[in-house]
Amino acid sequence: MTLVECNAIRCEAMQWTAILGASGIGKSTLLRVLAGLPTHWQFKGDIRASDGNPLSGRVAMMAQQDLLLPWADLIENVTLGARMRGERVDTEYVLEIIDRVGLADHMHKRPTQLSGGQRQRVALARTLMENRPLVLLDEPFSALDTRTRSQMQDLAAELLEGCTVLMVTHDPAEATRMGHRVLWLNSSGIEDIPLPDSKPPRAVDDAEALMMQGQLLRRLREES
Q: How many C-beta atoms lie closer than 10 Å to residue 102's C-beta?
């Protein structure tokens, strides 16, 4: 078990913070700590929201694996959280979300009938349905082709407007397009890296973002 001590790290409310660093450095584990899930780390520190209230019940997390129920169809997987809590399902909103992630023609299919990219979009739709103020995304667009990825990035930015989002990614391009800032993880700790002042999601050809992307990629290659 690894002991981890965190100093003061502030993730601004209602902004996207991209978490970047070499493979195996602990990015996914950090999200699990924030979500209150078990890890192989022993965490020493405090996790607090700016309003002073506990995070419990206010977090939605999308893991690297889609974690879909194999016996449930697409609609049942998307509405899983609400159904498990015994809440009323807003059918109209569910159908809207499914349509906007491009899966309206697959609503009654089970996970084995879907491609990897489609399954990831189901998991994204399920996370968007949770309507939580803190959203943790672990490589949420990694299985998507380039065009679909940019579309889902735009959709997530739109629907998570006003939420505090922490997104783990291995992709400097994604970090610079979606983040207000980057938390860089390495063996020495966590470094805060500001990104261009333009509002995410930035244009795919934004000059400042492309320059920052190159700097982050160079550093990622050096550390790897």
A: 16
Distance CA 24, CA 45 (A): 21
pTM of the model as a whole? 0.91
- And the tokens for 106? 């697959």
Joined tokens for residue 108: 């009654």
DSSP code, position 201: S
Give the Cα separation of 158 and 160 in Å (integer). 6
Q: Could you give the residue ranges of the DSSP H alpha helices within 41-90?
A: 74-78, 80-84
> Residue 37 corresponds to which amino acid?
L
Let me know: does 89 contact 83? Beta carbons within 8 Å.
Answer: yes
DSSP code at position 57: T
Q: What is the pLDDT of residue 5?
A: 43
Weakest-pLDDT range from 15-24, 27-36, 38-47, 203-212:
38-47
Helical segments of the chain, H only: 27-35, 74-78, 80-84, 91-100, 116-129, 146-159, 172-178, 207-223
153 CB-contact burial (10 Å; exposed 0-12 / middle 13-18 / buried 19+):
buried
Terminus-to-terminus CA distance in the chain, angstroms?
23
Residue 185: strand, helix, or coil: strand
Distance CA(144)–CA(121), nearest Å, equals 8
DSSP states of 130-167 as a string?
Answer: T--SEEEEESTTTTS-HHHHHHHHHHHHHHTTTSEEEE
